[in-house]
Automatic annotation (TrEMBL):
This is GP-PDE domain-containing protein. GO terms for biological process: lipid metabolic process. Transmembrane segments: none annotated. Residues 1-20 form the signal peptide. It comes from Daphnia galeata.
Length: 281
């Protein structure tokens, strides 16, 4: 992933208080975000699996959001997924890397009564901005406009501050590997307290990122999360560290490990980092 890309959470995130269950240390509430959920059927599947969040991949035509689509290659292609295909979206729905939905249809669906009345508490928008996009600020503002009216009302950062839903937008600069510490410091310079720190790599390469432990202990972010984690031992490792959310192709496995009663429902929006808080959308 491009470490310079600013992605959005439309959210409900949690604070890191700690408790213990089944030998797993975890935040008091831990979000489970289903990975590559780019169609309405995939949203339904994720919610039925117990996830309270979805990650969607937003492609652009110039600065205009055009389609939710991941493109090839993706986690559906790796050996670990082939061995357990029936348990993830790729196998369960027969949706591979090419699954897609145009932005108008998807935004309308996410604002429908079916979704609004569901357990969905967090939408993670992976904005696929590359060097061909000349104006990142305009593209980001267009993302906020896309969701403001159809989802919440029935330069991403600048546009969101003019929105009635400012407290529901959180920001993360995605990163991996050697970029992790620099991105952590850069993200804390953004002119907002609604910062989420997330790092990771494809589920095809289950690696533990020790930078997360330091990030959790610093408590300067609204939330800290990891992507993309499908193996139970990796999930346990990150729960021990104290992450606030796990992004996974196997949401049912994460829900079973965490406990469905420990996964936040829409409640009160995150306010201040480092203070007691709760959730709502």
């Amino acid at each position: 992933m491009n470490p310079s890309v600013l992605s959005l959470f439309l959210s409900v995130l949690v604070l890191p208080a700690v408790f213990k269950y089944d030998n797993v240390m975890a935040s008091l509430k831990v979000g489970v975000i289903a990975h590559m959920i780019n169609t309405p059927n995939a949203v339904r599947w994720a919610l039925n699996q117990g996830a309270n969040g979805i990650e969607i991949d937003l492609m652009f035509e110039g600065t205009r959001p055009s389609v939710f689509y991941h493109r090839f290659p993706c986690d559906c292609n790796c050996l670990l997924q082939f061995l357990t295909n029936r348990h993830n979206r790729c196998g369960a729905l027969g949706e591979g890397c090419s699954a897609s939905t145009n932005v108008t249809e998807m935004a309308g669906f996410l604002g429908s009564s079916e979704v609004v009345s569901s357990r969905l508490a967090l939408i993670y928008i992976d904005a696929k901005l590359d060097k061909s996009v000349r104006n990142y600020a305009e593209a980001g503002a267009n993302v906020v406009r896309l969701f403001n009216e159809p989802v919440f009302a029935r330069g991403a950062l600048q546009e969101a501050t003019r929105s009635n839903y400012t407290d529901r937008y959180f920001y993360t600069i995605e990163n991996e590997g050697d970029h992790a510490y620099k991105v952590l410091d850069d993200s804390l310079q953004l002119p907002t307290n609604n910062i989420v720190y997330s790092t990771g790599i494809t589920a095809c390469l289950p690696i533990v990122f020790t930078v997360l432990s330091e990030t959790v202990s610093r408590k300067k972010n609204a939330a800290v999360g990891i992507w993309t984690v499908d193996q139970e031992y990796s999930m346990r490792s990150y729960l021990d560290i104290g992450v606030d959310f796990i992004l996974t192709n196997r949401p049912k496995r994460a829900v079973k490990l965490i406990g469905s009663d420990k996964i936040p429902l829409p409640g009160s929006a995150f306010k201040d980092c480092g203070t007691e808080g709760s959730f709502h959308l």
